[in-house]
Specification:
Layout: H1 2-68, H2 74-109, H3 125-138, H4 150-160, H5 162-184, E1 188-197, E2 209-218, H6 226-292, H7 298-333
Antiparallel strand pairs: 1-2
Helix pairs in contact: 1-2, 1-5, 1-7, 3-7, 4-6, 5-6, 6-7
Amino acid sequence: SRIEASITAAEALLAADTARHRAREQQISPQVTKGIQQALSLRDQQIILTSTLDLTAAQLKTAQALYQNGKTTRDTVERARADVLEVEQAYQQVTQGIDLSLAALANTLNAPTPPREVLRLQVDDGTVQFVQQQLQQTLADVPLSLTTPLEALQRLALQNRPELVQLASQVKATEAGKAAVAAQYAPRLGFGVEAGTQGEEYRFGHGYNYVQGSVLLNWALWDGGAKQAKLNVAQAQIINVQAQREVAASQIKLATQQAFDEWRTQTLGLNTAKAREAAAQTAHTIAVKKHAAGLTNELTLSDARNALTRAQLNVSQTRYAILNALADLRLALGVN
């Protein structure tokens, strides 16, 4: 009936609205997580650059002293000065980046001031493992590993994402709306019974009491095509929402694949980054010893220091890339 169809449509719209709010809540959490991780990543870069800045400043003083004593050329001093300026510029950019990321985080949280207390958090390999274990606990029977079948994660995402629940409810609401339109033009038979008194005075009995019954049949034999037009509009709405759901499902599957691929790539890359950092650390240690023994020049030492700095920054950035990929994967899978 028309009433039943209207009730079904209202219930479906309520379910769609609930799913929409749930989807919004799930989007906010990864935004906050990634905002914090961006600030911490820049904080770690700042720490590394601070140490590098101290080394470059010391090397500049050494180069200036050697030049004054005639034991090196002026280009060595200029190279050392350029290294200092380069690190100072990178340090300033990172510092500004921290302020901007904290401001963006405050905007997301609707906080009155930037939450600088997050900069006290420490992130290491144990943090990455902990976040991965937390995500694994929410995946039930789907293991999270480098060999996990992508199709299993995509099926889980299609089951969990509230956006699809919202669109499914909208499909149900539009179908109920179409049913309501059809019911509006169906033949309707009404019955009515009326009883009371009649006359100039309020009296009961013969001559005053009356009972009246009526039967009403409402059937629109011709409406100029209005019914079919409304049905066509309702059907078009159903097709449109169904198409939106198919597009959303494809986007969710793609987002799951991108996040999973990024997590696997960065996880494998972390071991490579650590190996390069260890090699750069060894090379820098050897360069420092050779320079102290007078067996190498300032340029060699500077190159070794730059290589170590790049390797350290690469390890830090790769670690945070893993955490960001896990946040994206959590959002794609629709898990809390």
